[in-house]
Amino acid sequence: xxxxxxxxxxxxxxxxxxxxxxxxxxxxxxxxxxxxxxxxxxxxxxxxxxxxxxxxxxxxxxxxxxxxxxxxxxxxxxxxxxxxxxxxxxxxxxxxxxxxxxxxxxxxxxxxxxxxxxxxxxxxxxxxxxxxxxxxxxxxxxxx
Length: 144
Hints:
This protein is an alpha+beta fold. It has a single domain (about 10-130), classed as CATH 3.90.470.10. It is built from four helices and three strands. It has a three-stranded antiparallel sheet. The longest helix is centred in the middle third of the chain and has 19 residues, at about 50-65.
């Protein structure tokens, strides 16, 4: 039996912002629905919101194209932020000295899950469990 994919993802790499600043925003939208996450991102005052907004929008477009999912059924199941490479530049200072400027980047991963497809799998699995457990008394000490 072929299992239908229920998750899609979008990656944003080398986004020029600190991973800690991006994490502050990502923690607010993890586990929320697609529409609720977009609403939260529009109202938050942080600079990190715009790239994350674009990434969530892209993940929803991937879900629509690859699985035919509707935006209403999408849920952000996983949202991760990893540190990327650090861009190092030298700024000239007085008396021939130089000053190092370190520009940090981060990698964002947004994974979205289609709830409508997952509900069908859960219903099938619960029916199988009910059929398997007919002979037992349902106690926690029953051996299988």
